[in-house]
Design brief:
single chain; 15 helices
Length: about 280
């Protein structure tokens, strides 16, 4: 069991280093400074981001217009488990009667939220389990998460560099160093990050193109690495009545299992380093 403990210790060390880097005087922006007040995007970058947002939003609007007025009139993005229960009651019958239309609307909403970093996709994942069951729910969550993460990846590749440097200068520097050290086994490392909560998925989506993670590695790590977390949330969505908070999803046992799976994903890297030193 020494290897899993070492892995957890290394993950904790990385998170502490990130926190120290972000709290250091060199990474902080002075309060009231010109840098803090300056918006990170140029005018044309902001125009591109706004244009992409409106294209997505208009498409989403027309998809909602295909639903009966009584249905989309009740729709709102859930912000709590109680909101999610109400939404499930409103949309449950429509989803069973019009599954194709509902799935198109559900997928479009999920991808829109993931692309533009709108909080609440965890509730959409729970809703997939509540309405579609385990197998179909996992497929929908992984598909939408991958599509949304890919959209966010390419949007960040286009205009995200100043935003990432502005929001997470210390964390980005550490992430870039870790990626540079693991170029030969990059897929294994990205899988580890996707499976475990070492770094937020939002940061991974935005920072990966900035530190030159190839898209095929990003894509494979996302598709495979999100399956365990998708299983946890979809299974929890089957029993919304027993769920009181999103925090209940990730107890110590669940986190331990995720870190164990993450350890397995980087085991080839560990074994390779051991052979080199021998």
């Amino acid at each position: 069991m020494a290897a899993p403990r070492n892995l957890v210790a290394e993950s904790e060390r990385l998170m502490r280093d990130v926190e120290r880097a972000e709290d250091s005087p060199t990474s902080k922006k002075p309060v009231g400074s010109k840098l803090e007040r300056t918006f990170p995007l140029s005018r044309w970058e902001f125009a591109i981001a706004l244009g992409v947002f409106f294209v997505f939003a208009i498409g989403l609007f027309f998809i909602y217009r295909t639903m009966p007025a009584a249905e989309y009139g009740q729709f709102k993005l859930p912000r709590s488990i109680s909101d999610l229960r109400i939404l499930k009651e409103h949309l449950g019958a429509y989803a069973s009667i019009n599954p194709t239309k509902f799935i198109i609307g559900y997928c479009s909403t999920y991808i829109f939220m993931q692309t533009f970093m709108i909080p609440g996709t965890i509730f959409m994942s729970l809703l997939a389990g509540a309405l579609f069951g385990v197998i179909k729910g996992i497929f929908l969550v992984v598909f939408n998460s991958t599509a949304g993460a890919s959209s966010c990846f390419f949007l960040s590749k286009l205009i995200g560099r100043p935003i990432v440097y502005w929001l997470w200068p210390g964390k980005l520097k550490l992430f870039q160093a870790e990626i540079a050290k693991r170029r030969d086994k990059l897929l294994n490392y990205m899988l580890f990050l996707r499976i475990t909560p070492t770094l937020p998925n939002l940061f991974i989506n935005l920072a990966s193109p900035i530190v030159d993670v190839p898209y095929h590695v990003f894509f494979l790590a996302t598709v495979i690495g999100l399956i365990p977390a998708a299983y946890v949330t979809v299974r929890a969505g089957l029993a919304l009545g027993d769920l009181h908070s999103v925090k209940d999803l990730y107890d110590f046992k669940t986190l331990s299992v995720l870190f164990l799976i993450g350890f397995i994903s980087i085991l080839p890297t560990i074994l390779k380093k051991k052979r080199i030193y021998e």
